Amino acid sequence: MVILFGMPLVQVLLFGFAITNEIRDAKVSVVDPTPDAVTHALRNKLFASGFFIESEILNSQEEIAENFRKGESKMVVIFENNFSGKMERGEHPTVQLIADASDPNTASMLVNYANGIISEFNREQQAASGIPLIIAEPRMIYNPALKGVYMFVPGIITILLMLVSAMMTSISIAREKELGTMEVLLVSPLRPFNIIAGKVIPYVLLSFINAISILLLSYYVFGVPVKGSVLLLLAESILFIILALSLGIFISTIANNQQTAMMLSMFAMMLPTILLSGFIFPIENMPEVLQWLSLAMPPRWFIQIIKSIMLKGSGISYFWKETLILTFMAMIFIVASIRKFKIRLA
Length: 346
Fold this sequence. Notes:
alpha/beta; abc type-2 transporter like fold; 2 domains; five-stranded mixed β-sheet
C-alpha cells in the first residue's frame, strides 16, 4: 500500500518542484575596476531581476579562475575600465559575461538572461539620453563549444556507480535470508564486520572496473577531458563506490527479501540521484526544502568532485569538504549496517 499510494505522490511532488527550466538566484561575481554611476545602475538592474544574486566583488580578472574552481559563482560580469567615460566620448563600452560552461545549459541561460537585461538597459539609456549602446561579449570557459556530453558524462558516471553498486549489494544479504543461509552466517564465529567486508570487497573491485571502463569510454569515445589528476579521480571514485556499496548493504539488512531490497534501492536512490543531485536540474532553482534535502544526497557531492577534476583541473584543496562529507556518509552506513547485524546476533 505504501508503494502503491506513496510512491506516486512522492514522484509528483519531486518532479513538480525539482524539474524547472527557470533560473533563479544564480550566483554571479563582478569585476568593476572603475565603479561609476552607469556600472552601478546596470549592476542593480541585473541583481534586481531575481535571476542573479551577487556573490563576490573581484579585484581583477586573474581571480576569475579561482572563483570558478571554488564554485563561488556561475558567471562573472566584467566591466571595462573607465566605463562611463567611454560612453561620454561616444564609444561603445563592453561588458564581458564569462560563464562556467561545465553545465552548458545553465551557462547558456545565464548569458541569455544577462544579455536580455543589458539590452533593456540599453533601450532605457538611449530613450533617456541617446548615449551609445553597451556591447555584451559572452565567453564560455571549461566547455567553449557547449557540448552537452561534458555535463552528462559526469552525471552518468555517478548514476551508474550509485545504482549498480548499491543494487548489487542490496540484494546480497536479502538473498541469504531467502535461501536460508543467513542462519549459518549468524551462528558462525564471523563477526558482523567480517560478514559485511566479505560482501563489500568483491563488489568494490567489480565496481572499480566499471568506473575505469566508463572513464575510458568518456575520454576516448566522447572526448571528455581529464584535466586534473587521474589518480585523484580514481581515489575519489573508490570512495564513492564504497559509499554506494555500504548504502546497499544497509538496505539489505533492513529488507526481508530481494524484491523489497530492489524496490528500496531503486526508489531510494534513482529519483533522488537524478532530480536532487544537480546532475540535470540546478539545485538553486528548487524550493528551499528540496535544497536542504539535496545535502543528504551523496551523488550531489560526487558530481561536484568529478566535474572539478575532469573539467576544471582542480586539486583536493578545492573539494576537500565534499570528500569529507562522502567519507562521513560512508562511515555512517557501515556503522549502521554493523549495528543491525549486532541486533540480529543478540
